[in-house]
Amino acid sequence: MFICGNNFVGGALACALTPTGIENIDYVELKNGIYDDLYITRATDAELSNECPREWDFDTVLWAKFSGNTNAGNVDWSLENTSHLILKSRTEGNFKWKTIAVKEVESTEDFVINYPDYFVASGQSVEYALVPVLYGLEGNYASTEVTSRFNKMFLIEDGVVWGTQITDGYCDTTRNIPSSTVELLQSRYPVYIRNTVANYDTGSCKGSFMPLAEEEGCELAYDAQHDYSRVRYQKAFMDFLSDGIAKILKLPDGRLWLVQVTPNPADTGNRKYNDREISWSWVEVGDVNSEKDLYYLNFSGIEPEWWNE
Fold first, then answer.
1. Which residue has the higher pLDDT, 150 or 218?
2. How many CB atoms are closer than 10 A to CB 260?
3. How far apart, in whole angstroms, are the C-alpha atoms of residue 99 and residue 87?
4. Which of 46, 102, 159, 254 is the most core-located residue (most Cβ within 10 A)?
5. Which residue stretches of 162-265 are H helix?
6. What phi and psi values does residue 233 have, to the nearest 5 degrees?
7. To the nearest whole percent, how much of the chain has pLDDT over 70?
8. d(CA 241, CA 265)
9. What is the pLDDT at residue 215?
């Protein structure tokens, strides 16, 4: 009942249907018309106008100008406010980020960044974040999560990948904690002495290693038509082991190390002459999650100014 333009609720339009909704808007469609712009903002105090704002702000969701395309992003705005683009990663449950790639931004083409991350363990969930930076000031993080899995043993150096089927090889390890015990004259039990914080792994691996075939993803480059398909790579792998450069060792059970090969790799035959395996020893030389270790071991070119310490 309306009385003098008002109803019992107290407002002239209190009972009128309004376009207000409480559900999130996740779909917009324009059709059967000619449009100059489509502008969507989060700002609740935005004024209705026939003209769009002159520039993006942090409340802008999308702005399609229909200038020969349907792009609705803020590439032009980001270019003006971005000097570098950095890629970060962190493992599940780890709060600290690690910078794995840095790219200077000079044009819109520089917003495309590709980086092969060899420091990911099998079965380990890793979160990646792409971050725009304006002369040291970070912008909003755009992140995603990836879990990789593989069933081979890999040895990697500077983008060169060698691997072996885990059924054809093995890797045994020893944890090294240098210490000693001293037996005293008046004590039944010895005294344990440890004068260093050294705590690292050493190991020995064995297998018929093959180079990774890039065109086949993670498939190994066996030459099934050749009787000596395994032997043909033995010398090349020996040279790879003996070059004195630190490497990444990855196992399918999730273990991963930064290692240095120690003397002396051996090439031995099994039941048949051409069924040969290479065995080699290694020592752990750094932490895969340390930007400092990766830098000084030449695994990363990320300068200290970008470290997250």
1. 150
2. 16
3. 6
4. 102
5. 234-241
6. -100, -5
7. 84
8. 8
9. 47
pLDDT at position 266 over 90: yes
Q: Please, where are the H alpha helices in 75-169?
A: 75-80
The CA distance from 309 to 247, in Å, is: 24
| Residues 113-137: tens digit of each pLDDT | 889 999 999 999 999 999 999 988 8
Rg (CA), the chain: 30
pLDDT at res. 2: 44
Q: Do 119 and 156 contact (CB within 8 A), yes or no?
A: no
Cα 231 to the center of its chain, rounded Å: 34
Bridge-based pairing of strands 137-138 and 125-134 is: antiparallel
Report the candidate in 275, 274, 247, 277 with the shortest Cα–Cα distance to residue 261. 247
The pLDDT score that the predictor gives to residue 53 is: 75
Beta bridge partners of 145: 127
| CA distance linking residue 309 with residue 99, whole number of Å | 10
Per the structure block, which two tokens stand in for 204? 């020995």
Are 294 and 309 in contact by the 8 Å Cβ rule? The answer is no
- Type of residue at 178: P
Q: Which amino acid is at 151?
A: N
Query: CA–CA separation, 206 vs 209, rounded Å?
Result: 9
Q: Which of 221, 223, 253, 230 is nearest to 153 (CA)?
A: 253
**Beta-carbon contacts of residue 136 (< 8 Å; ≥ 6 apart):** none
Residues 6+ apart with CB under 8 A from 149: 122, 123, 252
The model's pLDDT over 28-54, given as tens digits with 9 standing for 90+, comes to 888 888 888 888 888 877 777 777 777
